[in-house]
Amino acid sequence: MGVKEIRIVRSGGYVVHVDICVEVSMECVKEVHKLYYATKKELSGFVEEVVPGVSSLAVYYDPRLTSSEQIESKIRDLWLWARNIELKDLYRPRKFTIPAAYGGDFGPDLQSVAGWAKLTEEEVVRIHTSRAYTVITLGFTPGFVYLGEVDPVIAAPRLETPRVRIPRGSVGIAGRMTGIYGLESPGGWRLIGRTPLTMFDPKKDPPIPISPGDQVEFKAIKPEEFDRLVGVFVGDYTA
Amino acid sequence: MGVPVSGALDRLSAVYANALVGNEPASPVIEVIGSLAVKFGVDTVVAVAGGYPRVFLNDVEVRPWNPIYCSRGSVLRVVPSGVGYVHYIAVSGGVVCDKVLGSASTYVRGGMGCLGRTLKYGDVLEIGLTDVVDVWGRVSDLKPPQQLVEIHSSIGKDALTLRATEGIHSSLLSDVDVLLRGEYVVSAESDRMGYRLEGESLGSAKGLGRLPSTPTDRGYVQVPPDGKPIVLMSDAQTTGGYAVALHVVPPDVDLLAQLSPGRRVRFKLVSIEEAEQEVRRYLDELEKPRLIREELEYWG
Question: Is residue A234 helix, strand or coil?
Fold first, then answer.
């Protein structure tokens, strides 16, 4: 099923929310990214900020400079225009490799994911590291990276009860998404590993070099290598 | 990239505290929930705004929402009075903080901004250099709009009306009007991320389950599957997977911040046009607070 119609909801007097699809899919994510980069590029003078979600986009505007009606009609025009172009015409995605130590204390849920998948832990790791993922969006907490799409074989659901504290750098799985916790935070994803890289550094500009649409690959590393790489900024790491 | 806007829970009060001491509206201030005593190492001008706490300068009671001259060595104490919840202490010259992402706000969960944590006994803060005598000459007869002070000095007595537009998922929640009917009580489990409300829950939220993560913002009224609304505040997550029933207009989020647990609110639905009008007025006031010069009692 293709993405045809967008649904626009205006709220609060300063937000135009654009729903691009109901069901999350990588096809939909691509449309979100196209509209995200098109809006950023074409409406930069009009809007304060554009934030992508998993299947939607929020556009923040200053009602002293424009109105939600005006934003809405511009977004509808952009949507029609973006239908006929490729994402690469708007944004050139970058590639990142994320080293991660899997299992044990690094990934306390690797065992439960393996159990869910009826595979060994090694097989789960091999499957997780065997494809490049698209950055769906960043958000939730600083530096949290949403990635898709996980092989259905290892797409274990999130935990029933979220953890209160997850160490920064943790790599988790939640259904068809995998993600990295940039900072220590609460969360309910199944943790299979952890990267030693600093994913988010507020002293850097930008604090995280990863953008929606970029590609991320994971590389399994040994605990010794983990220790050696602690503190390396994600933007400075080369595999 | 997932960083909350952070900053003051009640922005307008923080801006007025700054304006009353001659600072730029967005200068760093100290946000106080509970009591705080500050000793000044230099002569300075301070103002306390937000709610209506009791304020003492060297044990003499002084008024909030008013510029106060503090000599070197004096002690300013802010003590809750039960009226309002978050109070702002602005100091002429502003609190000096390293900026993170262009902001001096502390985001405690992220350990970011200024000290990266809440203040504790014995902390020493640096303040910006100003010509105190000159500042005092310019601000000593300034006062905020009477109406604003009246709202803050009686806040929480009656149920606060929060004006809100429909939210992103209003159309998915069949019983969103439940929110508009009764009163809700601010729960003790509220924090800088969100104010949780107790009251009639929304049954329809249960069937919705988890939605695709959407961008969220301050003022969003999220309804998790338990049906109990949460109004997102300044340190809220930037994306969320719960249904958003309503969106409280920004100036009313400031007022909500002033309610301590146990205080009551009700929601009132407004149109987008009305909300835009409120946002325009609010942004203007944040940029240019409307201070009044106290009328002189004699002429000449």
Answer: helix
Beta-ladder partners of A194: A101, A170
Task: Tell which A residues from 117 to 146 touch B, by Cβ distance under 8 Å.
Answer: 137-144, 146
Tell if the CB–CB gap between A182 and B213 is shorter than 8 Å: no
Domain count, chain B: 2
Structure confidence by residue, pLDDT tens digits, A105-146: 999 999 999 999 999 999 999 999 999 999 999 987 788 999
Within a domain: B287: no
Residue type, A35: L
Task: Name the H helices within B122-271.
Answer: 132-139, 146-153, 177-181, 204-208, 250-257
Say yes or no: B97 and B207 in one domain: no
Final residue before a domain boundary, out of B119, B145, B171:
B145
Predicted-complex ipTM score: 0.90
Q: What is the CA radius of gyration of chain A?
A: 19
pLDDT in tens, B117-158: 888 888 888 898 889 999 999 999 999 999 999 999 999 999
The closest of B131, B221, B139 to B184, measured between CA atoms, is B221
Q: Please write down the long-range contacts of A165-170, taking CB distance under 8 Å and 24 or more positions apart.
A: A166/A191, A167/A194, A168/A199, A168/A200, A169/A194, A169/A195, A169/A196, A169/A197, A169/A198, A169/A199, A170/A107, A170/A194
Yes or no, beta carbons of B239 and A24 under 8 Å apart: no
Residues B136, B185 within the same domain: no
Q: Give CA–CA dist A136/A123, Å, rounded.
A: 25
Nearest to B276 among A9, A63, A185 (CB): A63
Q: What six digits make up the tokens of A90?
A: 């708007």
Closest by CA position to A66, among listed A48, A79, A51: A48
Planar angle of CA B268, B269, B271, nearest 5 degrees: 140
Parent domain of B219? 160-269
Return d(Cα B34, Cα A158) in angstroms, integer.
38
Partners of B107 on chain A (C-beta within 8 Å) are 142
Say what the pTM is: 0.90
Domains of chain A (ranges; CATH) run: 7-89 (3.30.1360.40), 95-236 (2.40.100.10)
